[in-house]
Design a protein that fits this description.
The complex is a heterodimer of chains A (about 110) and B (about 110). By secondary structure, chain A is mainly β. Chain A is about 0% helix and about 60% strand. In chain A, strands 2, 4, 5, 9, 10 and 11 form a 6-stranded mixed β-sheet that branches. In chain A, strands 1-3-8-7-6 form a 5-stranded antiparallel β-sheet, with no helix packed on it. Chain A starts with a strand and ends with a strand. Chain B is mostly beta strands. Chain B contains no helices and 11 strands. Classes of the chains: A mainly beta (about 110), B mainly beta (about 110). Chains A and B meet through β5, β9 and β10 of A and β5, β9 and β10 of B.
């Protein structure tokens, strides 16, 4: 079952613009992660934000987390054609027998050159 | 850079046939995961190994799916018999420990006719 829902489902922007994707989830989490998937390929880990963090940066990526609203956002600044991919959030809950990632439905980002 | 290897990359089979997928995780990674990703959705965990032991197979359809990791290194996922609804991407991932960052292989695209 999918834990997260991502919004929008698809996003098309021009090179140089910023892209924002949102993720909502249902249960308490230890951390939330964002992955990228190029067409027909495996997933690449982008960034992890812990439940006690509110914002994190990595290069052109900025992630925010609001645990009270059970939501996160991924901002990609100064987008490039190479950023074209599907982006997934994944929530992690560790403890006892429960220790796995649950992925959202994904946002398909198209960056037009 | 070390990568997760999977084979085959593509598999076409007829329903009721048996299929098998192979995964070789990054050397030294104790935790191995098999995911199924239906087109347009996020990956869903099928089974998780810690060394050679299964720690989570709650979403594995055990009447037709089986997975093993006999020596705690590479792993095989089998489907017998395959059904039309099994058409999907099967992804393998590994991490150094439970809860660690997961590194994904390129996946096996299965088409059941």
């Amino acid at each position: 079952s999918q834990q997260g829902e991502e919004d929008p489902q698809a996003l098309s922007i021009q090179e140089g613009e910023n892209a924002t994707m949102n993720c909502s989830y249902k249960t308490s989490i230890n951390n939330l992660q964002w992955y990228r998937q190029n067409s027909g390929r495996g997933l690449v880990h982008l960034i992890l934000i812990r439940s006690n963090e509110r914002e994190k940066h990595s290069g052109r990526l900025r992630v925010t987390l609001d645990t009270s609203k059970k939501s996160s956002s991924l901002l990609i600044t100064a987008s490039r054609a190479a950023d074209t991919a599907s982006y997934f959030c994944a929530t992690a809950l560790y403890g006892g027998a429960t220790n796995k990632l649950i992925f959202g439905t994904g946002t398909l980002l198209a960056v037009q050159p | 850079e070390a990568e997760v290897a999977q084979s085959p990359r593509y598999k076409i089979t007829e329903k009721s046939q048996a299929v098998a997928f192979w995964c070789d995780p990054i050397s030294g990674h104790a935790t191995l995961y098999w995911y199924r990703q239906i087109l347009g959705q996020g990956p869903e965990l099928l089974v998780q190994f810690q060394d050679e032991s299964v720690v989570d197979d709650s979403q594995l359809p055990k009447d037709r799916f089986s997975a093993e990791r006999l020596k705690g290194v590479d792993s095989t996922l089998k489907i017998q018999p395959a059904e039309l609804g099994d058409s999907a991407m099967y992804l393998c991932a590994s991490s150094t420990r439970r809860g660690g960052t997961q590194y994904f292989g390129p996946g096996t695209r299965l088409t059941v006719l």
